[in-house]
């Protein structure tokens, strides 16, 4: 266990110039940390202090004025000063009882020099000591970092790093990965664990926590607790170095794990092709994800703009996995020629899967990695299935979603197969080879009339159908007068018949308008 490089009022009292000094108030505050020493002879000092300063004064600022001294002391307490040292004799002969009581109430040490002392020598002595401690702290921090780096080369589990941190600082150590139980070094009772967990959640000078980030996402949290003293700046620096080392270790493990997953892809491909029985799928999950209680799942297809995946594919896989596992999914990945397939096994409430999936997609697209790469990865989410043996169906629908996205581009506003509705119908009709003829059958007269007369009959028909035949609303949305609308509707009746608002024909008309707008080259 190493020293914590903090100088306290009690340490200062042991220095040679304090041999004949006496603590007359705030005895319980001698543990206060001292970061610097100031000589102050003015009574308005709010703007001069930063906290943790030991104040030396002859009292010339307040002399025998009790109210000024109380105000001065109150400012020191509010500024989190370490203590007040007063030279008795020249300007101050005694300390009022009210001042002593105020100091005791706030555990703020008041120290009296019973004889004249050289303030310049006191400041020089303490400042030299503080600076030397600072240099020693830097040297110790560098030595700790070197030992930590050596350990990273040989350890098999991050628990060794946690033990090293505890041994070095002597503090209680807590480590908690997202979604997992906290680990304690040294081990303690269940009651104590609950107390420590509650303790680190509350802001305190005796606790400190550091988030461990992977791919700019919080992956775990490392905390230290001290029961004997405040957490020092040195403790915080050690905590930061240790968190970085654990992040490196976890990242290395994730890379190894990701490489291992790539070797299992053949089995996963067979799963999506329907080659495995429900029993085989259950056995695979038991072996590779024993902690997961599957509640359905789906397939997500990620397509990249280039003909082949970039060299950053492993990083992308880790980023993708980190984000969506935090949303309650267990992932299996399959790397294809120029795309990635992900099997999402749902671990939480089935009713929230889509909300969580959408939140994960937004986080992925807004990540620094995606923004920096300016990558236009296309995400296609297949149908959610309650039975994992039916994942081939989700795979097929993910492929269908991808085909529709490629065909319609940015006109498609959703990543989910179940949201495509009309697009699925149009895609099915297009695959049958009859879509062009159907659009011609219903819309060709209108389109030809608009092209010949620079008209807006198709737009009028679309809005009129959307307004459920309301002439008033249609005119308002088109910004035309009723008479103009009546004229256009009469023309539409001439071109396509006066029965276009008949339920069945109306549905067909709406479908064909959708097909024509999103596939405008149908009639070329």
UniProtKB/TrEMBL annotation:
Entry-linked InterPro entries: CdaR-like_regulators (IPR051448), PucR_C-HTH_dom (IPR025736), PucR_C-HTH_sf (IPR042070), PucR_dom (IPR012914)
Domain Purine catabolism PurC-like: 11-130
Domain PucR C-terminal helix-turn-helix, first and last residues per copy: 457-511
Name of the protein: Purine catabolism regulator
Source organism of the structure: Anoxybacteroides voinovskiense
């Amino acid at each position: 266990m190493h020293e914590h490089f903090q100088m306290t009022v009690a340490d200062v009292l042991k220095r040679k110039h304090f041999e004949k000094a006496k603590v007359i108030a705030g005895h319980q505050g001698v543990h206060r940390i001292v970061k610097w020493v100031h000589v102050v002879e003015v009574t308005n000092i709010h703007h001069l202090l930063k906290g943790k300063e030991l104040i030396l004064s002859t009292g010339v600022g307040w002399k025998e004025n009790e109210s000024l001294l109380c105000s001065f002391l109150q400012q020191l307490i509010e500024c989190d000063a370490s203590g007040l040292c007063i030279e008795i004799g020249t300007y101050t002969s005694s300390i009022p009882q009210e001042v002593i009581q105020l100091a005791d109430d706030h555990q703020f040490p008041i120290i009296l020099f019973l004889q004249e002392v050289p303030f310049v020598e006191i400041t020089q002595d303490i400042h030299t000591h503080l600076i030397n401690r600072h240099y020693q702290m830097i040297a110790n921090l560098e030595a700790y970092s070197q030992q930590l780096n050596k350990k990273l080369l040989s350890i098999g589990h991050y628990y060794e790093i946690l033990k090293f941190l505890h041994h070095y600082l002597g503090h209680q150590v807590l480590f908690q990965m997202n979604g997992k139980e906290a680990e304690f070094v040294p081990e303690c009772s269940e009651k104590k664990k609950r107390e420590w967990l509650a303790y680190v959640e509350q802001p305190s000078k005796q606790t400190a926590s550091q988030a461990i980030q992977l791919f700019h996402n919080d992956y775990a949290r490392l905390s230290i607790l001290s029961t004997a003293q405040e957490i020092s700046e040195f403790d915080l620096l050690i905590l930061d170095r240790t968190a970085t080392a654990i992040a490196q270790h976890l990242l290395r493990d994730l890379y190894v794990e990701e490489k291992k997953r790539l070797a299992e892809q053949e089995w996963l491909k067979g799963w999506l092709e329907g080659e495995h029985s429900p029993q085989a799928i259950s056995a695979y999950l038991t072996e590779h994800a024993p902690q997961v209680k599957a509640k359905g799942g789906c397939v997500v297809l990620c397509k990249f703009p280039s003909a082949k995946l970039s060299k950053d594919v492993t990083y992308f896989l880790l980023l993708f996995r980190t984000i969506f596992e935090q949303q309650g999914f267990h992932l299996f990945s399959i790397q294809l020629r120029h795309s990635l397939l992900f099997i999402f096994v749902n671990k939480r409430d089935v009713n929230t899967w889509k909300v969580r999936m959408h939140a994960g997609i937004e986080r992925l697209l807004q990540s620094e990695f995606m923004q920096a790469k300016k990558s236009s990865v296309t995400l296609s989410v297949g149908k959610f299935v309650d039975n994992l043996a039916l994942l081939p169906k989700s795979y097929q629908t993910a492929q269908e979603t991808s085909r529709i996205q490629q065909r319609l581009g940015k006109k498609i506003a959703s990543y989910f197969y179940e949201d495509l509705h009309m697009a699925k119908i149009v895609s099915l009709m297009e695959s049958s080879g009859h879509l062009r003829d159907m659009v011609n059958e219903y819309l060709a007269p209108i389109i030809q009339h608009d092209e010949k007369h620079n008209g807006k009959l198709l737009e009028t028909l679309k809005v009129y159908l959307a307004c459920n035949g309301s002439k008033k609303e249609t005119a308002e949305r088109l910004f035309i007068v009723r008479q103009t609308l009546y004229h256009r509707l009469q023309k539409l009746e001439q071109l396509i018949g006066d029965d276009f608002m008949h339920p069945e024909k109306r549905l067909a008309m709406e479908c064909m308008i959708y097909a024509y707008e999103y596939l405008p080259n149908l009639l070329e």
